[in-house]
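pls read this protein:
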Amino acid sequence: MGGRWRGRLRRATDVGIVLLIGLFLVAVVLDEHGRTHEPLLIVLGLPLGIGQSLALYWRRIRPGAALAVALVGGLVIQMLVPSVVIPIAALIAISSFAAARPPLRSLPALAALLGVCAVDFASASREDTYFTIVLAIAAWAIGEIARNRRAAIEGEARRAVAEERARIAREIHDVVAHSVSVIIVQAAAADDVFDTRPDQARRALRSIETTGRDALAELRRLLAVVRPGGDEAGPVRPQPGLARVDELGEPLRAAGLQVAIRVVGEARPLPVGMDVSSYRIVGEALTNTLRHARASRVEVTLAYTAATLDLEIVDDGIGTPGVGFADTGAATGAGAGPEGGPGPVVRAGRRAETITTAPAPAGRGGGHGIIGMRERAAMLGGCLEVGPRGGGGFRVRASLPLPADLGGRSI
């Protein structure tokens, strides 16, 4: 509704400008004709005066053509009617032209307008002529300011869209990577004990179903914001936070990984963005442990201090995230190939099976998961440390500064 009214107001303004400028120029020409009885005033003055005013109506969609008509008409009118010192139609047109075109094109147009204004030196005082020149420069400056403001707004909108796309991509990566890793491990575990422990196989299958449903709900929530009409899609599941961090450990426990979660200090309510990002960092670290570390135990520590929230995820595995297996099957136990490349994946109680995988990027920061964790920590003004521990295993530690108004406040 607001956009419709703005459009109507803009059209009404354009029509009003055309009528006012047209009536003014026609009145000036007729007044001059009444004194001099010069026929050129009727032959040229009236058509050019009306033409200038009509051209202003299209100054937004055809700024160059509107300015050209205003400059030619203004020059002729000033030569025919010396009392018209200010080419008012051209001033309006140059402002619109500068708002629509870069300085490389608008400055030559300004020079042409200044040439029209300089005609006044022959028929008007120097003070009036200089005043007209200043008005022309001011009209151009107003248009240039409007163009720069619009460019800044459009640039900010593009950055906002890019940031939102990156955020959604990180969220989808975290949801899919964690859920698919858990499903693969649970499926392998169910296959191993399907004949000997059917009850355990059923539990693994139920865990797969739960994980899949949760992942589907999270994906629906994330895609709702980019789907047309997403705001009308009905209620969606709220975003997860550290209050639900224990849910990340449940499917890993069912897969045989011991997960311990402890809280140090007094937990505090966090801003939504920080709460969600912290949850995702923990989830991604647990996913890397499941996929790459070949660990039997992982400990998650949430430490609340006066100024920071420290997240630490430590496992007793021998793998390094981003080095070794890119396939999630490595979480069930695997022998690495030469130089950290793919090797045979050995499942408990079964013969060795070879799964062809591509080696993941080497290094502390390899892989999209660690990159995503670093980006989340940096976005919150914190830092992330990843690497093997001296006594064995792998550690992920994120230190996130708490907002000042949360310092010392407890639930």
Notes: Confidence is low (pLDDT under 50) at residues 230-235, 320-366. Strands lie at 258-264, 297-304, 308-315, 344-345, 353-354, 383-388, 394-401. Residues 179 and 377 are 22 Å apart (CA to CA). The longest strand covers residues 297-304.
